[in-house]
């Protein structure tokens, strides 16, 4: 069969969201999410005790309050924008390629969507996790779950996995276009905030030594090309260059930490430091997130705003995530077309 005539499906995967902001739905989401051994990578018995006995029971009611703030008439922003991305990518690709969407946690679930795709009898399926920088807890977990499901199929089609795309020119261009909506010179400092990870998880990328032994803040090379820290810094350099932001005017930071053994600099501490230096206006990019969610709208937009004000600052301005931006759709189209 000619390659161009192959029946091809694309599976977009995002992280996931509770079905509603009810405590019961948030509890169910957190239970699935935090029991993933790629998210909390500690011995299974300890993880079950920690997650099911301590974290989920105590965190679910508080998280539900945060999700209530996040929820809109269209539901979860992450799910809404992911669905919009799917529909617009489908429209851009035409009828020759079929696009589906699944969430790693909760709905639409990877097993349910893959079962639908199995029945379509595709010659090839392209698996595209919507996480620009590779991390075991995101890309790795999504890909592993796809393997788990498809490994049980009697007929396994040709598969292609997109590991990361942090350096794709259209991804960088999309964030630069979003940044140009704001007069960057009016802000005292720019912070590029990425979701944090325990340092042990980036250390596992290397067969020998630790992440801190490498020059991940300065370059991506053959050894560290799958290091989340290295690719986060590389993403930042590319966006800053596209927007002509001088090196002294921006900082890379990592948010959502659970303890002090996570990637540094910490975003919350960076905000306090900037306020103490006299900064009044901060501009926040969140390039690890391709759709706005709890971590962008609530954690940065509300939580970091309050933190900044507490220490003498005035305004934290969040640059929107890619959501359904036209250049982002073109980026995904290019990724797919290069694999058909």
Automatic annotation (TrEMBL):
Predominant location category: cytoplasm
Keyword Lyase attributed: yes
One example of a Gene Ontology biological process annotation: heme biosynthetic process
UniProt xrefs under Gene3D superfamilies: 3.40.50.1400
Binding site for Fe(2+): 195, 295
Record field: catalytic activity: Fe-coproporphyrin III + 2 H(+) = coproporphyrin III + Fe(2+); heme b + 2 H(+) = protoporphyrin IX + Fe(2+)
Localization: Cytoplasm
GO cellular component: cytoplasm
NCBIfam families in UniProt: hemH (TIGR00109)
Entry's family note: Belongs to the ferrochelatase family.
Function: Catalyzes the ferrous insertion into protoporphyrin IX.
Protein name listed in UniProt: Ferrochelatase
Native species: Mangrovivirga cuniculi
């Amino acid at each position: 069969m000619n390659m161009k005539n192959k029946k091809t499906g694309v599976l977009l995967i995002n992280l996931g969201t509770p079905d509603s902001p009810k405590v019961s739905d948030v509890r169910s989401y957190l239970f699935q999410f935090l029991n993933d051994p790629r998210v909390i990578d500690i011995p299974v018995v300890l993880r079950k005790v920690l997650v099911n006995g301590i974290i989920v029971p105590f965190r679910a009611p508080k998280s539900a309050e945060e999700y209530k703030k996040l929820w809109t008439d269209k539901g979860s922003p992450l799910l809404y924008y992911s669905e919009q991305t799917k529909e617009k990518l489908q429209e851009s690709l035409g009828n020759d390629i079929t696009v589906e969407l699944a969430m790693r946690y909760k709905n639409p679930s990877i097993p349910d969507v893959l079962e639908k795709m199995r029945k379509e009898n595709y010659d090839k399926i392209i698996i595209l996790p919507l996480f620009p920088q590779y991390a075991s807890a995101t890309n790795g977990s999504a890909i592993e779950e796809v393997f788990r499901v498809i490994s049980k199929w009697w007929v396994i089609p040709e598969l292609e996995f997109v590991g990361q795309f942090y350096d794709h020119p259209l991804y960088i261009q999309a964030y630069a276009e979003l940044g140009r909506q704001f007069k960057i010179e009016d802000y005292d400092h720019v912070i590029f905030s990425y979701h944090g990870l325990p340092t042990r998880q980036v250390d596992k990328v290397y067969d020998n030594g630790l992440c801190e032994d490498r020059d991940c803040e300065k370059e991506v090379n053959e050894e560290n090309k799958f290091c989340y820290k290295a690719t986060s810094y590389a993403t930042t350099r590319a966006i800053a260059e596209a927007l002509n932001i001088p090196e002294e005017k921006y900082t890379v930071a990592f948010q959502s930490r659970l303890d002090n053994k996570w990637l540094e600099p910490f975003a919350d501490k960076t905000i306090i430091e900037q306020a103490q230096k006299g900064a009044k206006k901060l501009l926040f990019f969140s390039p690890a997130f391709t759709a706005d969610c709890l971590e962008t709208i609530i954690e940065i937009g509300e939580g970091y705003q309050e933190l900044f004000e507490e220490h003498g600052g005035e305004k934290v301005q969040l640059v929107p995530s890619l959501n359904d931006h036209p250049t982002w759709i073109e980026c995904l189209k290019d990724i797919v077309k290069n694999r058909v």
